[in-house]
Design a protein that fits this description.
about 625 residues, alpha+beta, Penicillin-binding protein 2a (Domain 2), Beta-lactamase, 2 domains, six-stranded mixed β-sheet, five-stranded antiparallel β-sheet, 20 strands, elongated
Length: about 625
């Protein structure tokens, strides 16, 4: 082979080698080199989250109580900022340069966290809930702020300022939730308390996505025409609450100027009709940019407006507890409707004395409830736990405890809210720790009248009234009647399970007959009744080691086929008949008769205008 031909072959071989190298490289870019391909897509696409509207929440009669409103956020691609008109941004947002730099640093942290879903979007929230002025100025100048864009989402609006503890509020999803649920991204809003929290997954809706082509300045240049990259947001379904808006507002006006709680339940369903705490807060103040600062202010408030007294507050039930004691005593066979006991100003046994207010006697069961005789129930209590059939006071008390727990006392009632307290029904071991191993019935005699270690929430007190109204059974209290599109779900079925006490239905009528006389002449709540409505009730005055006694009242009405059960607790209110009874009876009238004016305007005016320190 001559020299020229050899050079020719080498040259051709070199060309072929270069061709093969370029071909393989091109193939790797187009087919095999996924990271480069993905990088190219990431640089060209922006995956915009479409935020759904959360569920509208209605009261039981169709009154809209909570709805979503549109807001706008300023978002940014924080790692792509090469040149920023900081002065313009500071001017529009009315922020200083150090604050803007801090927001950029925060946005970089958020952007890194958003990559957990391998999304095309490496943007992050920069500034939430723009004012109308800010939105207008940004829309006009966004082209001058490379890497920034305006994003739409929804926040909440409340039609009432009285339902903060029932409805709850929204806050930003924390790191723990984001790590546990791929639905959430940094900056997303989530239910923090109330129904917003409990039903978060049902009412949050479903996010949508819009994927757009963008140029190097992150300006949108068109939507990707592929359904796998684009789908609309789906709003949360309508939520029909069990609450009665009118009753709720009315009850809040009666509790004005007082600390306490009101809970009302429809006995036949367990649906909560009213759920009131005071102090409370306007949930509309927990919306928008100021929600974090508002929360801090509320948290520091010595009046504790964030405290949900209805389900977290625990109090001695006082004399309202006598109704349950009477029922259990009849079930245990140590009491009949005709059983009488004397009083003489109180119960005495050696050095032990439980006082009682002056009244005639001796009293039978019905009279003991009407008059609320302490001595009567001290003797009934001892008959229960000193019953010879048990042979030991601790076995007798264990039987009493078992009955009490069948009323849902000492355990959460499983209302559709988080953080419900158990209250306290002391166990034998707890009494051993408190009083030593050799305690007697006389040692714990204060339990007989709802004092001592016994503690209940206002919700448990109300549920007790509902149990008596139903003659021995109840449904777990709940604040939601239904969620459209969600039927026969686990949470729905839970609130349709009928629960029975250990007391036979035959005994309830005797207690109810006594309760029906409480608001009549001679009863402890005489003068607070409502003409035309037979109210069955029990007053309570609970001793308070921290100040004046608490005013307590449980009731239901009408006597037959009851429509409402209610419990009212007014802290430091003194006698049950002074404040709690009028409030409850006025609310019963409002719910059952629905008239704009009360039949007892003087009593209503006194309650509304009075302040209890």
């Amino acid at each position: 082979m001559d020299k020229n031909k050899s050079k020719q072959l080498v040259f051709l071989g070199l060309i072929f080698f270069i061709f093969v190298v370029y071909t393989l490289r091109l193939a790797s870019l187009q087919l095999g080199d996924v990271p480069y391909k993905k990088m190219a897509i990431n640089n060209a696409l922006n995956k915009i989250t479409l935020y759904p509207s959360r569920s509208n929440v209605f009261d039981r009669k169709g009154k809209l109580m909570v709805y979503s409103t549109q807001m706008y956020d300023l978002s940014v691609f924080p790692f792509e900022i090469t040149k920023l008109d900081t002065g313009l941004l500071c001017s529009i947002l009315e922020l200083d340069i150090q604050t803007v730099r801090g927001l950029i640093a925060d946005a970089r942290v958020r952007a890194k966290k958003r990559q957990k879903n391998n999304s095309f979007n490496n943007s992050a929230l920069f500034y939430a809930n723009l004012s109308n002025k800010q939105f207008t100025l940004l829309r006009e100048n966004i082209y001058r702020l490379d890497g920034f864009f305006i994003e739409s989402r929804t926040d909440r609006q409340f039609a009432t300022a009285t339902l903060s503890h029932a409805l709850g509020y929204l806050g930003e999803a924390d790191e723990e939730l984001i790590a546990a649920d791929n639905y959430y991204q940094p900056g997303d809003l989530v239910g923090i308390t109330g129904l917003e929290r409990f039903y978060e997954k049902q009412i949050r809706g479903i996010k949508g996505v819009k994927t757009v082509w963008q140029d190097r300045t992150y300006t949108e240049r068109g939507v990707v025409k592929d359904t796998q990259f684009n789908y609309p947001a789906t709003a949360g379904p309508d939520v029909i609450s069990s609450l009665d808006f009118v009753l709720q507002e009315y009850g809040r006006s009666l509790l004005n100027g007082k600390k306490g709680s009101i809970v009302a339940i429809e006995p036949s369903t367990g649906e909560v009709l009213a759920f009131i705490n005071n102090p409370d807060y306007d949930p509309n103040t927990m919306v928008g940019r100021d929600r974090a600062n508002t929360f801090k202010t509320l948290l520091r408030d010595p009046q504790k407006p964030l405290y949900n007294r209805a389900v977290k507050g625990v109090y001695p039930p006082g004399s309202t507890f006598k109704t349950v004691m009477a029922l259990i005593a009849m079930q245990e066979g140590v009491l009949t409707p005709e059983t009488t006991h004397g009083c003489g100003g109180g119960y005495r046994l050696g050095s032990i004395r439980v006082g009682c207010h002056p009244h005639g006697g001796p009293l039978d069961l019905r009279g003991s409830i009407r008059i609320s005789c302490n001595s009567y129930y001290c003797q009934v209590f001892r008959d229960i736990i000193d019953n010879p059939k048990y042979g030991d006071v601790k076995l007798g008390y264990a039987a009493l405890e078992k009955h009490l727990r069948s009323f849902g006392l000492g355990s959460p009632l499983d209302i559709d809210l988080l953080g419900e307290s158990r209250g306290n029904i002391p166990s034998v071991s707890q009494l051993d720790r408190r009083h030593g191993d050799r305690w007697k019935s006389s040692t714990i005699i204060s339990l007989s009248i709802g004092q001592g270690e016994i503690l209940l929430t206002p919700l448990q007190m109300c549920n007790t009234a509902a149990i008596i109204a139903n003659r021995g059974w109840y449904y777990s209290p709940h604040l939601v009647k239904r969620i459209e599109g969600f039927k026969d779900t686990a949470w729905d079925r839970k609130y349709k399970i009928k629960k029975f006490t250990s007391v036979s239905p035959q005994y309830f009528q005797y207690v109810i007959d006594g309760m029906s006389e409480v608001t009549k002449p001679g009863g402890t709540a005489n003068g607070t009744g409502i003409e035309g409505i037979e109210i069955c009730a029990k007053t309570g005055t609970a001793q308070n080691p921290h100040g004046k006694d608490h005013s307590i009242y449980i009731a239901f009405a009408p006597k037959d086929n009851p429509k409402i059960a209610i419990a009212v607790l007014v802290e430091n209110g003194g006698y049950g008949a002074t404040w709690a009874a009028p409030i409850a009876n006025l609310m019963i009238e409002k719910y059952l008769q629905g008239k704009p004016e009360s039949s007892k305007p003087e009593m209503e005016e006194r309650i509304k205008t009075s302040v209890i320190q």
